[in-house]
């Protein structure tokens, strides 16, 4: 393969996403000769599709002029991400090299909280004043470099947001009409401080393609478009993955270890407490285990099966709640389904597992004990897997938070108790 | 509370989303008097925000005329969902009551695969022919009831898709200009058969707000708008929750038990195999356990902690990969972080746990054994939690599929082995 690794200007311009994927696979030491020869403008577009660590690597090996051009021209979100990774003096040096308009723009953007509407908004939008005629407004639009908008915002002389006009309405009106006749109310506006989660919810509830952003004094400062929320929607939707095992939704794969340690440790301590609870169940049967050590060997099998089956029920129910496909009032239906599934799969696994244990131990009693315990604990898994997120929601909690930790406690206790309890009753057969 | 449960026409019209939330909380037997008096048109809008089971309940208690009005006027997606739940004869009866245009529309829609572009598309869009002048095109737009679009599609006389024109460009052009001068190429179009996943990916890669949909012969038949993909984006993003524990991403909270049983059982059998593997590790130490039964009691504590810590590392890494915040080439960074976290949290938990065990057993040896095992198994958890999804990706697999099952095997084996192994070495202290 030649030094370009297949990434050349023409390719970069036509297929920025594919080029980004290609760049992603180039080892860091080989990056410099590849990206050094590329057009910074085209590179800046492809860099939006790189993972942040790779984007930084690429940025770092570029000559200063190329760096400045990327900061100046690329999407502000990329520029802010890149600048955030530099140390203060490097950042200042680069900012000083920019045109003052861009510099001030980026500084203002960096001042907003991460994940706030201020950071996510697009600062280019169309705005006109209501006193104009349709013809005058169209003339203003003609002078703007923006294309492809579907509405124009209407602002007062102090840039206070007053409404919006559909461009389609402008196109259909005659030039002498007053713009004011076509102004529609803006029902939904957010401030620069509005959280990403709230924005996602707002766009979901409303049927808007974009939401205007005003500052704390009500002046229009930007617009959040649907497509810039794509990442935010995915991000919010996948947060449950982390919350269910006691990881803060803010933690990222490359967060600092200190942040991860501090946030995860409390939940691990709670998990420790629940693990001792499960252990105390085993403790109740210590005498029995001393007599039949094979029980200790098979103990994790029942609890493990129950744990996984419970996690299945939990995942489906939690996702159903998150996507609003079920509400908590449907708890009977969900529970009924999971009881059926637990019972059926419990019987199926009891048969497989019973046969396997019989072949291993040649003890019919032990095989029977594990089979009975399997059915009982799988049932308990289905019941708790479906009820944990529903009960959490009913209590006003997030159905994801710590759900996996609560579930494991239930399935462990159920698994241990059903297995050792059945063994106690059927001890004469062991 | 009066019989309306606070849901009245005015409220329904102004706040459909809130009204839907209100409706969701009304028990099914009390629905009829509440919804019977509502304006079907406003109700149809609110019903889009109901969970499907509740939407069906509401629909079922309405008089036939109201049902027909909802099918006729509400979003086609709602109509298709409602019709899909009825038995064949009821569905036919209702369809027969509709105007023939609506009936054919709905039939055509139902013929598309679920989750295909055909089902998700909007059948109302603006289209004109290229031979027109700008003025003529504007006249056509004026006759259309659609408002708020940002572009018009250009089609041939056979309705083949030829391009699109920004409405903003139309607004700015003079009426005599030829429309053909303003036509832009459409780079991205999908067919009615295109999958939802592919659509989501396409909208993510491109910077479009909507994608035109063509049939297999290239005729324009609809448009998929960003906002109708909102649910699809969330749905695709949350599929990992299920895949990681061996549940098919197609399963829903209210899927038929038979579907759930058939799809979950194979993974539960694989999990059973891995549970036996973990049990065989315990089997190696059967003699030791017979001597010190306290080991059997504490066994689940170490494995449980390691399992939860591993699930934390797994969740963060998997989410990072899914959101493309990391690529597999960053494996060293991710692994390094998780090793640090595992080591630190392992030491912290070893101290807590060691003290607790000493207080319970008054055995310094046992406390030391569990403390050492805790550090080792927490390290193993961090390593496997971060590497499992990365290795799966490297092997060309989905990083989520069965990741939790693989991880649990590793953390169980590591937990049992480190605990019982350390106990063997330090047996003289027990």
UniProtKB/TrEMBL annotation, chains A, B:
Keyword ATP-binding: no
Subcellular location: Cell membrane; Membrane
Pfam families: CBS, MgtE, MgtE_N
SMART domains reported in the protein's UniProt record: CBS, MgtE_N
InterPro entries, per database record: CBS_dom, CBS_dom_sf, Mg_transptr_MgtE_intracell_dom, MgtE_N_sf, MgtE_transporter, SLC41_membr_dom, SLC41_membr_dom_sf
Membrane topology type: Multi-pass membrane protein
Ranges of residues in domain CBS: 121-182, 183-241
GO molecular function: magnesium ion transmembrane transporter activity; metal ion binding
Quaternary structure annotation from Swiss-Prot or TrEMBL: Homodimer.
Family, per entry: Belongs to the SLC41A transporter family.
Record protein name field: Magnesium transporter MgtE
Annotated organism of origin: Halospina denitrificans
């Amino acid at each position: 393969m030649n030094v370009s690794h297949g990434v050349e200007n023409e390719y970069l311009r036509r297929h920025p996403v594919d080029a980004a994927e290609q760049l992603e696979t180039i080892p860091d030491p080989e990056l410099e000769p590849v990206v050094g020869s590329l057009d910074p403008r085209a590179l800046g577009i492809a860099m939006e599709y790189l993972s942040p660590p790779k984007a930084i690597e690429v940025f770092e090996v570029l000559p200063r002029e190329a760096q400045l051009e990327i900061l100046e021209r690329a999407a502000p979100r990329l520029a802010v991400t890149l600048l955030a990774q530099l140390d203060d003096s490097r950042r200042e040096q680069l900012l000083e090299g920019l045109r003052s308009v861009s510099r001030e723009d980026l500084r203002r953007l960096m001042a907003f909280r991460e994940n706030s509407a201020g950071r996510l908004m697009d600062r280019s939008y169309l705005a006109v004043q209501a006193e104009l005629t349709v013809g005058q407004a169209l003339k203003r639009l003609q002078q703007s470099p923006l294309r492809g908008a579907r509405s124009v915002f209407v602002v007062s002389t102090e840039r206070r947001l007053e409404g919006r006009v559909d461009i389609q309405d402008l196109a259909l009106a005659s030039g002498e009409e007053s713009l004011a006749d076509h102004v529609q109310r803006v029902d939904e506006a957010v401030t620069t401080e509005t959280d990403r989660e709230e924005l996602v919810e707002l766009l979901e509830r409303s049927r808007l393609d974009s939401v205007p952003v005003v500052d704390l004094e009500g002046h229009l400062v930007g617009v959040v478009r649907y497509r810039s929320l794509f990442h935010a929607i995915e991000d919010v939707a996948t947060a449950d993955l982390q919350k269910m095992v006691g990881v803060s939704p803010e933690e990222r794969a490359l967060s600092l270890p200190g942040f991860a340690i501090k946030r995860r440790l409390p939940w691990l301590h709670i998990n420790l407490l629940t693990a001792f609870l499960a252990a105390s169940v085993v403790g109740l049967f210590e005498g029995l285990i001393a007599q039949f050590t094979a029980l200790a060997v098979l103990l994790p099998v029942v609890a493990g099966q129950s744990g996984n089956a419970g996690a299945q029920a939990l995942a489906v129910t939690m996702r159903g709640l998150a996507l609003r496909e079920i509400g908590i009032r449907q708890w009977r239906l969900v529970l009924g389904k999971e009881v059926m599934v637990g019972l059926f799969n419990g019987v199926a696994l009891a048969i497989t597992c019973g046969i396997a244990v019989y072949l291993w131990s040649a003890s019919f009693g032990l095989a029977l004990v594990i089979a009975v315990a399997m059915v009982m604990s799988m049932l308990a898994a289905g019941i708790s897997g479906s009820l944990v997120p529903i009960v959490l929601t009913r209590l006003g909690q997030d159905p994801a938070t710590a759900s996996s930790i609560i579930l494991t406690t239930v399935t462990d206790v159920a698994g241990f108790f059903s297995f050792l309890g059945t063994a106690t009753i059927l001890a004469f057969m062991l």
